[in-house]
């Protein structure tokens, strides 16, 4: 074992509360106290691992630092994918960081060049929910969830795919929650708190699985953190600070029955952090000795307030190694490298230690497959233990897996679309906003910017928005600090010209979905840095003639006044009181006015003070006022603290209240689910009947009988579905009441309560597991192997159950039902699975699956139909014998043309035109309905009419040529038909 | 976390005659929409000796500010020469650009400014009474001094603010609060000294 203390890893002497190594092992993050804020720093790992790299000036040590947290950062954790970093701090916030990969090193505006951040990490989400300091955060296996715990006694589960959505708030602790760990299989999450309990929560329903208190009875709430850990094989959960016989221990809790029989003993003070090695090990096989298969074991590091670290192997009774006095103060956090051989430890004293083990010391790590096999043999298949490669091919055994797969696919699709759009716009990405180049904007900015006067006569400028920014959107990663120095600007330019601006991350679980088309303009707009750096250059260029000025500035005679200026740069002007004034935001403008008056009043006094005195005097007065301010602040916070006390009790009460309500909550949720998809339209829902019978077809004679709640088995009421087909009967039972049924010669389908749709073959075999409809069923229809479901929310779906394909997918009827109180009067499903809706206003629409459009196929009020007269062209024998979907929807009276012709005397030419138009409509409608019979009928009529009316050669040719186009699914005679024309 | 971060300040028309207006092209990024306007101010320091000679050249409100990147040009008239001590007219001074939100200053950008006679003749033999019409102002745009202050972006804390039942404990536990503020901690803390 090698031990190293890289002194360059520090927060300028401030405590480091957390450390975490990136999954790829190339970097690590530390979190802690900054100058006057919280601080997160990302460090390069290679200078820790290799001495050469440490000495190499060209290899950066610090990659990025973020001081966005307002107060001390208590925890930093990389997501398992390594894409994100989550940090939680005393400012009650959790920030999620993502690297902006497309942009090169840059500085923050105004900071000196050497502090340049080598990598750019941008805060992509700020998670606000906790009302107290966030103590620990933890990503679930596979990064589906992020958990955070706080001194507000709660644990919050965030949807890591859709920040900042909260999935659950786990209440139950009655003390500060100071540590979290996920079960490696993703079934549980455990939390340890100052309330002398360790609680295990189920991820299935986010309810408490167990609360373990006994080993913690003697504990005082004195540790800063209680970072517990779950073993990689899932068998053991090891707590932080526990007591056994008045000695501090780390309690081992067995997963089986949550037994607490073992513990790690030996530390002299409370255990602050326990961290399992991510690897499972087996004994190193020595060359000589015959392979006696040894039991796999785990490795665990324990850090304590006694400033020592111990490393344990679960196969040994004694620790593998104990390092005493590793630090000057308590150990705060531990992180293992992914290969399991390295360990980083951080301490309150602001330093970090690195331990490097060899395989001889720890053993042979099991491969991921072996580890996965152990998981599978112990827990069965579960999402968390599947590796990516396995998952895509695995049989889906639980809904979570399905969800995961879907998500993956969705992501891929999104990426494809994004990248395609990206490549499309890449060439034109040259600093253009709304078609105007940034240079142009900048030239005219002063002229164009909107300036108004406020009521109190002050100037108000409306800034020009050059890039929109959806907060919480991952596109924020596009934005970055703009480099200041000329050379950096140059590199920026070159990097731009090589079009590095494209977002590089390929597997971002981002929300670039179709709902956010605005991200594109954002992306384009983010080329702004080009413009900026250009201008920067130009500014620099213009200032070169006066390049002597820096020299002037450094002349000794001028140094003194500059020193005097120094304070001016950094101290807040008195014009704006630094301490948050006790003004409310709403009355701000009024208050601001007052303030200014106040300032005017204040100022002369200040001047009096300083006018006669030297610069120093000012400092004195300033500092005294400052310290006074500080004092006030402190008093304020103390007051706040005091106020906070009694409130704790009221919180407790609310906890006990909320515990009772989950059942009510879930039902409410269901109700919400039901009502959401139907914002305006609501189709009638069939009520449950005791029993009903339905004739499916007469030839062969087939009918189905439904009896609801016909029997009770073990408290569950069952409903019976019976089908009789030419005397042959089959029956089945369903667990919920059947609302409606439909059938054809091929399939029988029934819609039950709870939005379930079941489909059976004509012989009674269940064809599909129940389909969950988006909303309750309104109408159900079957034709052939097609099943059509119209839901109460006015969405229509058609499936081909034999080919297991969707024909129409949740198509909304909004477009055809919109605007009036129309209802669907008749529904039809053609043999080809095309749905036809006859509406109460006499119009009929069919939905064309190939075009995804609603097509008007019939209109009772159609004046064309009333004026058209083609009787002369009707073949005598099959005058009205043509039947088909078109005939059904249009009704038999569609040849009212003759009457119409009698009623209105229309010029012949007009009638000819209308008749032709009508016939063409009919041909097209028949074609769309894929009704070959009717198509033939109407095409023939059309052709005859053309011939009879003696239209010109060209006209006929044109029209018949058009009809040469035939639908492949239609039968051959058509060709002959068009030939006869 | 600061909701507004300044991305860049470009000093336009620099160097320029003393009497020409100041022009700063400011671009900033706002992480979420602001309820109130930002207030920007240009302060010209007349003399290093005393704040007495500070001149607020202008102040503007900037808003509304939705989330996103924005830019504007802040133009302000040149300082009043009458208010500048004669001894400080020529030489180095400072111009400050400050930004406040809800009356709290969160950003201060300072630039050194050098006022000198471009004419070598005048430079050699400066007139006893400074001739402002001949002075040239040169802002050292390449090295701004940026100071950021933490402020409360949600407005001044309300008296009935969010409950912080255990803030005291946590802060004390980290050694940030007053030592021994929580009586229960005393014992363990003292053990650290052993």
Descriptive report:
The complex is a heterodimer of chains A (981) and B (194). By secondary structure, chain A is α+β, with helices and mostly antiparallel strands. The radius of gyration of chain A is 38 Å and the shape is elongated. In chain A, the strands form 13 sheets. Chain A has a five-stranded antiparallel sheet. In chain A, strands 1-28-27-26 form a four-stranded antiparallel sheet, with no helix packed on it. Chain B has one domain: Histone chaperone ASF1-like (Immunoglobulin-like). Helix content of chain B is 10%, strand content 40%. Chain B has helices at residues 120-124, 167-173, 186-192; strands spanning 4-11, 16-17, 22-30, 38-45, 54-62, 68-76, 91-101, 104-116, 136-139, 145-148. In chain B, strand 7 and strand 8 (104-116) form a beta hairpin. Strand 33 (459-462) of chain A pairs parallel with strand 5 (54-62) of chain B, so a sheet runs across the interface. Chain B: Its main location: nucleus. Chain B: InterPro entries: ASF1-like, ASF1-like_sf.
Radius of gyration of chain B: 23 Å
Query: What overall geometry of chain B do the principal axes of the alpha carbons give?
Result: elongated
Overall domain count of chain B: 1
Largest sheet of chain B: 7 strands, antiparallel
Helix content of chain B: under 10%
Q: What is the assigned CATH homologous superfamily of chain B?
A: Histone chaperone ASF1-like
Proportion of residues in extended strands of chain A: 25-35%
Order of H and E elements of chain B: EEEEEEEEHEEHH
Separate helix tally of chain B: 3
């Amino acid at each position: 074992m090698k031990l190293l203390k890289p002194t360059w890893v520090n927060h300028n002497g401030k405590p480091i509360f957390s450390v975490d190594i990136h999954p790829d092992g190339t970097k690590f993050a530390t979190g802690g106290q900054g100058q006057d804020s919280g601080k997160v720093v990302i460090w390069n790992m290679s200078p820790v691992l290799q001495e050469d790299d440490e000495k190499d000036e060209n290899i950066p040590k610090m990659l990025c630092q973020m001081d966005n947290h307002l107060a001390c950062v208590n925890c930093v954790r990389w997501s398992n994918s390594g894409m994100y970093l989550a940090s939680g701090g005393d400012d009650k916030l959790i920030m999620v960081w993502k690297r902006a990969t497309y942009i090169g090193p840059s500085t923050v505006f105004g900071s000196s060049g050497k502090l340049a951040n080598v990598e750019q990490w941008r805060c992509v989400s700020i998670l606000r929910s906790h009302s107290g300091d966030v103590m620990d955060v933890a990503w679930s296996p596979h990064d589906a969830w992020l958990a955070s715990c706080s001194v507000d006694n709660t644990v919050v589960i965030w949807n890591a795919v859709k920040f900042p959505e909260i999935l659950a708030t786990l209440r139950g602790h009655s003390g500060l929650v100071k540590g979290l760990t996920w079960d490696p299989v993703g079934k549980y999450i455990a939390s340890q708190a100052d309330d002398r309990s360790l609680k295990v929560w189920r991820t299935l329903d986010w309810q408490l699985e167990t609360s373990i208190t006994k080993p913690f009875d003697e504990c005082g709430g004195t540790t800063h953190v209680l970072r517990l850990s779950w073993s990689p094989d899932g068998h053991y959960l090891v707590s932080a600070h526990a007591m056994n016989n008045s000695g501090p221990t780390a309690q081992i809790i067995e997963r089986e029955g949550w037994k607490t029989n073992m513990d790690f003993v030996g530390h002299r003070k409370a255990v602050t952090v326990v961290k399992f090695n991510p690897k499972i090990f087996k004994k190193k096989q020595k060359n000589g000795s015959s392979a006696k298969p040894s039991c796999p074991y785990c490795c665990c590091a324990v850090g304590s307030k006694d400033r020592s670290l111990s490393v344990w192997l679960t196969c040994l009774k004694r620790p593998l190694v104990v390092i005493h006095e590793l630090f000057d103060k308590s150990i705060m956090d531990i992180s293992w490298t992914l290969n399991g051989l390295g360990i980083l430890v951080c301490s309150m004293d602001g330093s970090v230690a690195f331990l490097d083990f060899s395989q001889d010391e720890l053993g042979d790590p099991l491969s991921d497959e072996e580890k996965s096999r152990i998981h599978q043999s112990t827990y069965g298949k579960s999402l968390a233990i599947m590796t990516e490669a396995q998952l895509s091919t695995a049989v889906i055994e639980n809904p979570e897996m399905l969800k995961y797969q879907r998500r993956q696919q969705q992501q891929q699709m999104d990426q494809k679309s994004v990248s395609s759009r990206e490549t499309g716009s890449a060439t034109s990405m040259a600093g253009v906003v709304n078609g105007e180049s940034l240079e142009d904007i900048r030239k005219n900015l002063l002229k164009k910017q909107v300036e108004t006067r406020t009521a109190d006569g002050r100037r108000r400028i409306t800034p020009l928005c050059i890039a929109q920014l959806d907060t919480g959107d991952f596109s924020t990663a596009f934005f970055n600090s703009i480099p200041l120095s000329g050379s950096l600007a140059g590199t920026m330019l070159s990097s731009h010209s090589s079009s590095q601006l494209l977002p590089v991350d390929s597997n971002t679980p981002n929300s670039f979905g179709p709902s956010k088309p605005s991200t594109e303009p954002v992306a384009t707009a983010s080329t702004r840095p080009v413009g900026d750096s250009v201008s920067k250059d130009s500014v620099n260029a213009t200032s070169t003639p006066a390049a002597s000025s820096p020299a002037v500035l450094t002349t000794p005679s001028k140094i003194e006044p500059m020193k005097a200026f120094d304070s001016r740069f950094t101290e807040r002007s008195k014009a704006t009181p630094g301490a948050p004034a006790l003004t409310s935001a709403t009355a701000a403008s009024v208050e601001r006015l007052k303030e200014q008056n106040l300032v005017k009043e204040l100022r002369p006094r200040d001047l009096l003070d300083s006018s006669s005195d030297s610069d120093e005097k000012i400092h004195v007065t300033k500092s005294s006022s400052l310290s006074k301010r500080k004092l006030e602040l402190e008093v304020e916070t103390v007051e706040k603290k005091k106020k906070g006390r009694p409130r704790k009790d009221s919180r407790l009460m609310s906890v006990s209240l909320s515990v009772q309500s989950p059942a009510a909550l879930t039902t409410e949720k269901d109700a919400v689910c039901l009502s959401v998809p139907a914002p305006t339209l609501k189709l009638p829902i069939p009520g449950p009947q005791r029993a009903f019978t339905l004739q499916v077809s007469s030839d062969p004679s087939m009918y189905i009988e439904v009896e609801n709640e016909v029997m009770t088995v073990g408290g569950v009421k069952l409903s019976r579905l019976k089908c009789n087909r030419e005397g042959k009967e089959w029956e089945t039972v369903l667990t919920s009441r059947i609302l409606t049924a439909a059938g054809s010669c091929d399939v029988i389908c029934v819609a039950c309560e709870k939005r379930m749709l079941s489909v059976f073959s004509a012989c009674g075999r269940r064809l599909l597991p129940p389909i969950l409809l988006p909303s309750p069923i309104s109408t159900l229809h079957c034709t052939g192997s097609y099943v059509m479901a119209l839901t109460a929310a006015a969405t229509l779906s058609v499936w081909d159950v034999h080919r297991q394909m969707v024909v129409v997918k949740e198509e909304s009827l909004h477009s055809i039902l919109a605007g009036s109180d129309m209802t669907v009067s008749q529904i039809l499903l053609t043999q080809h699975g095309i749905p036809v809706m006859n509406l109460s206003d006499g119009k009929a629409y069919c939905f064309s699956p190939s075009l995804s459009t609603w097509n008007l196929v019939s209109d009772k009020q159609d004046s064309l139909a009333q004026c058209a007269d083609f009787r002369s062209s009707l073949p005598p024998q099959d005058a009205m014998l043509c039947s088909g979907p078109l005939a059904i929807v249009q009704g038999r009276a569609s040849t009212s043309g003759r009457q119409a012709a009698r009623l209105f005397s229309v010029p012949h030419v007009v009638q000819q035109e209308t008749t032709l138009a009508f016939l063409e409509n009919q041909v097209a409608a028949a074609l769309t309905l894929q009704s070959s019979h009717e198509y033939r009928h109407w095409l023939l009529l059309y052709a005859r009419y053309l011939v009879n009316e003696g239209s010109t050669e060209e006209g006929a040719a044109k029209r018949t040529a058009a009809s040469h186009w035939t639908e492949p699914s239609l039968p051959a005679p058509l060709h002959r038909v068009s030939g006869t024309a | 976390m600061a909701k507004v971060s300044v991305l860049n300040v470009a000093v336009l028309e620099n160097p320029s005659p003393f009497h020409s207006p100041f022009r700063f092209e400011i671009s900033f990024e706002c992480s979420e929409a602001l309820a109130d306007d930002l207030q920007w101010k240009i302060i010209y320091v007349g003399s290093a000796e005393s704040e007495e000679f500070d001149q607020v050249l202008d102040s503007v409100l900037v808003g509304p500010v939705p989330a996103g990147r924005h830019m504007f040009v802040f133009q302000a008239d040149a300082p009043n020469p009458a208010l500048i001590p004669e001894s400080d007219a020529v030489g180095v001074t400072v111009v400050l650009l400050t930004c406040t939100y809800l009356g709290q200053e969160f950003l201060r950008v300072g630039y050194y400014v050098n006022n000198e006679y471009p004419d070598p003749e005048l430079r050699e033999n400066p007139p006893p009474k400074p001739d402002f019409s001949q002075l040239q102002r040169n802002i050292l745009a390449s090295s701004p001094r940026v100071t950021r202050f933490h402020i409360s972006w949600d407005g001044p804390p309300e008296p009935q603010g969010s409950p912080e039942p255990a803030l005291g404990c946590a802060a004390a536990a980290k050694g940030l609060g007053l030592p021994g503020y929580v009586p229960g901690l005393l014992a363990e803390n003292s053990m650290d000294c052993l």
